[in-house]
């Protein structure tokens, strides 16, 4: 749910959640008020009335007007009274002192001088330019008749209570699937293949659970991808799956299939640490909606997987998660555990989350197929929140077919997440791709374009057209402020000093204290303008393009656009060790579709993967090559 750190950081405009109680957490520095605060004591000592101390002229041009202005004050001797100009000239007020004093009015005067200097610099360098750009975009006309905010409140108590009938996807059945003779081959089978082994009773859920728990424990010391093994729960759920099958009850393709959850997702009786040392011992008695859905589908939870601390990047209280394809580098993105574990064959699939890049970046780095679904498709009840208008849950899998199967199981609306809805998705297994027109950007992987063209898809050059230049700052303002609303008390109690990476959330959330409410709303209005422009220019059914371009990551999340991350190849790592290595850098692309058209992106990804095998490659975590070692 947070921008990762790819090779050479993208141009990040670093700002970041709950729209509720927003007024309690957004702050506007009022220069005239500060002037009044500093000058009043000096002038009051000389007997000046409050209005005079404020420089009131009795008209609209005065700095401040009080009821005291209507009182007939007795004439006073002004001899020796110091003027405003002289006060400021003789006792210049430092910015840090002014900032510290101003924060009293926001009930936020708990920062030390070092943090205040950092906040001052950040506000000047990042906040103010973004505010000005957004005001220029959407605030030039009065009345609010144009560019309305995308933050819409659902006022109806029961108008949204009716759920549309969910139509289950028509899954294909894997044919001629036979149980491999070794666990390694079993570990890299797809969900649909493993499901067929279970359905035909060639393997039990208990046996599968054994296989994946052994792999988790074998490779986790190197990858640092697991927070908690849910071993007792896993064997309990595996037994239930096996017992049901013995009774002739088969729940579908996820029946008895092991999986992992990102550790921001609540599961009763197990820790949900959010990757943070501050919360590493917390346990919730509630079930996340996504966990309930997977449990009802017969899936078996084997582990809570690493999230970067408070869903930011790949650093957590237990270390830093590595990339199975090149274990000298890290996985990036806060869904680090789900991506690395799926890539290494430690789980057949996993559930991660994205606010801004935390599905796309680690999936691309670790070379797995993943889906960032349309915003609102999967309810986020009992999941740690960064931003209600940005957070999404999605699957990491071996193939697009598996992503479709998992999406079908976890999608849906829940009362605990007002933004969730029953998205009327089409069946990706019934899409006629020959009737689609698909664009490709300049940075698209051309092999994907050529393969889809050979399968009858009309491929055309395409460009995303929009005039909004503040895409990155809109996302960061939204994300930082929303996040601060959710972790206000955490910051006030000084827990940011204990955070695992001091250049991440601590810096961004301090700066978020200085985002005025007005400019937060202007950012949302600018977001609405961006959405309209992207929608109006979307003349195709889908498009192909780079999936880790930071501007596009921001745009896709602001618009709520789905994307499938598709592995398209491997290349040599930079500066390989002498003697060679089997470590590789993964190559990926993204297949994007308009909101509510996830099935189109999935259908195109399935078509590409039906004639290529890039998604079936296995990372070299057992054989690093001669003279190769991990540097810690």
UniProtKB/TrEMBL annotation:
The keyword Signal applies. InterPro entries: Amidase, Amidase_dom, AS_sf. Residues 1-44 form the signal peptide. One of its GO terms (molecular function) is glutaminyl-tRNA synthase (glutamine-hydrolyzing) activity. Residues 207-486 form the Amidase domain. Pfam families: Amidase (PF01425). Keywords: Signal. Gene3D superfamilies: Amidase signature (AS) domain (3.90.1300.10). This is Amidase domain-containing protein. It comes from Panicum virgatum (Blackwell switchgrass).
């Amino acid at each position: 749910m947070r921008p990762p750190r790819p090779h050479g950081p993208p141009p990040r405009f670093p700002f970041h959640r709950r729209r509720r109680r927003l007024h309690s957490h957004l702050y506007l520095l009022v220069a005239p008020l500060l002037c009044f605060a500093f000058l009043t004591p000096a002038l009051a000592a000389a007997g000046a009335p409050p209005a005079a101390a404020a420089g009131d002229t009795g008209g609209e041009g005065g700095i401040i007007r009080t009821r005291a202005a209507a009182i007939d004050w007795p004439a006073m001797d002004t001899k020796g009274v110091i003027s405003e100009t002289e006060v400021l000239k003789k006792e210049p007020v430092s910015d840090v002192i002014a900032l510290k004093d101003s924060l009293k009015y926001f009930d936020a005067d708990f920062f030390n001088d070092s943090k205040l200097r950092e906040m001052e610099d950040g506000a000047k360098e990042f906040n103010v330019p973004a505010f000005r750009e957004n005001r220029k975009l959407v605030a030039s006309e009065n009345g609010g008749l144009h560019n309305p905010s995308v933050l819409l409140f659902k006022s109806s108590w029961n108008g949204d209570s009716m759920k549309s009938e969910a139509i289950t996807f028509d899954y294909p059945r894997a044919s001629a699937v036979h149980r491999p003779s070794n666990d390694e081959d079993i570990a890299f089978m797809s969900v649909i293949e493993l499901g067929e082994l279970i359905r035909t009773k060639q393997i039990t859920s208990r046996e599968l659970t054994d296989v994946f728990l052994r792999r988790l424990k074998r490779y986790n010391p190197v990858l640092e991808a697991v927070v908690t093994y849910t071993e007792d729960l896993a064997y309990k759920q595996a037994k239930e799956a096996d017992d049901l099958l013995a009774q002739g009850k088969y729940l579908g393709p996820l029946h008895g299939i092991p999986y992992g959850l990102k550790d921001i997702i609540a599961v009763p009786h197990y820790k949900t640490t959010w990757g943070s040392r501050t919360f590493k011992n917390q346990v919730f008695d509630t079930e996340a909606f996504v966990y309930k859905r997977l449990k009802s589908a017969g899936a078996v939870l084997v582990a809570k997987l690493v999230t970067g601390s408070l869903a930011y990047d790949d650093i957590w209280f237990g270390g830093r998660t590595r990339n199975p394809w090149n274990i000298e580098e890290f996985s990036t993105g806060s869904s680090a555990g789900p991506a690395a574990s799926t890539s290494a064959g430690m789980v057949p699939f996993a559930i991660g989350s994205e606010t801004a890049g935390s599905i796309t970046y680690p999936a691309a780095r670790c070379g797995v197929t993943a889906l960032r679904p349309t915003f609102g498709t999967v309810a986020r009840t009992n999941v740690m929140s960064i931003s209600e208008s940005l957070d999404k849950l999605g699957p990491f899998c071996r193939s697009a077919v598996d992503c479709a199967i998992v999406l079908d199981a976890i999608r849906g609306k829940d009362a605990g997440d007002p933004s969730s809805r029953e998205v009327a998705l089409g069946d990706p297994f019934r899409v006629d791709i020959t009737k689609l027109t698909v664009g490709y950007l300049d940075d698209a992987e051309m092999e994907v374009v050529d393969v889809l063209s050979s399968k009858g898809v009309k491929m055309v050059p395409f460009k995303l057209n929009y005039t909004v230049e503040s895409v990155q700052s809109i996302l960061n303002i939204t994300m930082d402020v929303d996040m601060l609303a959710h972790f206000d008390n955490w910051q006030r109690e000084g827990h940011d000093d204990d955070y695992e990476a001091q250049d991440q959330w601590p810096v961004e959330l301090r700066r978020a204290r200085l985002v005025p409410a007005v400019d937060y709303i202007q950012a949302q209005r600018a977001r609405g303008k961006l959405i309209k422009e992207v929608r109006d220019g979307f003349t195709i059914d889908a498009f192909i393009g780079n999936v880790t371009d930071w501007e596009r990551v921001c745009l896709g999340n602001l618009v709520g656009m789905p994307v499938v991350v598709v592995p398209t190849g491997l290349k040599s790592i930079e500066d390989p060790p002498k003697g060679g290595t089997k470590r590789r850098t993964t190559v990926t692309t993204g297949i994007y579709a308009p909101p509510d058209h996830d099935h189109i992106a999935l259908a195109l990804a399935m078509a590409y993967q039906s004639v290529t095998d890039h998604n079936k490659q296995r990372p070299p975590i057992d054989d690093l090559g001669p003279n190769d070692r991990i540097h810690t």
